[in-house]
């Protein structure tokens, strides 16, 4: 073929490729139907289905459960029987804001334990290649690593709960002040809650969105906030929910209650900051005593020691 034919063929292929890329980009950039409908139904409770937003595909736990389902389920049941405390795990999962059942959490513990066991087994194999006599010690090390991995997932759950509660305490004064301003402007408790939930982001806003969804499905306002007070692990948030419930039921001024609770949270935060500074004061003295002070003493006395050594016959 002539160069002109080759040029026309390559140009046509390049044009088709560009058209394919442009068409794919247009399809990808087009908003999904779920994202267009979700703003109108986001306050409804998610019953029997997971949320659409933020779902990037199956999680590793789900994929592993699909492949090794029976084995993982049996191992998770064994861990649950050995460790127990399903009620405590359920409460901590709710306080951490994780949409995970107790059984799925046990599967995660098994996966963590298997990962630690595999890491220890790899080190044991490398050590066995150099010294084949330490097989019993390697087996004990692998078992200890597996148990440590299972317990490490439980410890990480507790850390997740504490981190979420710290975020809620940080968000609480602002949310309470916004609710108080909306109520003082003449809105009702439900309308004020709806406005604050739509304008804020965070863990406390998600909890309030759950309360708002329960209210819109017919649950009384006082009962919804009482349930929030019962499930939360923070006394300040529990008092906040109980205060709103009592104010709605008895007709007490809600704006004053919210302002007072926001002031209490800010004061509690200041007290905690002062107590933390007092506890860290001793740790702050460690570099001064063990690093700065020896260097200062050395610079002060070393010239004198050198001078004495020069003048001594």
UniProtKB/TrEMBL annotation:
Localization per record: Cell membrane
Domain (Type II secretion system protein GspF): residue spans on this chain: 177-299
GO cellular component: plasma membrane
Alphabetized UniProt keyword annotations: Cell membrane, Membrane, Transmembrane, Transmembrane helix
Membrane topology field: Multi-pass membrane protein
Main location (coarse class): membrane
Pfam families the UniProt entry points to: T2SSF
Positions of transmembrane segments: 6-27, 110-130, 136-157, 282-302
InterPro entries listed in its UniProt record: T2SS_GspF_dom (IPR018076)
KW Cell membrane (keyword) present: yes
Protein name in UniProt: Tight adherence protein C
Originating species: Nocardioides perillae
Lineage: Bacteria, Bacillati, Actinomycetota, Actinomycetes, Propionibacteriales
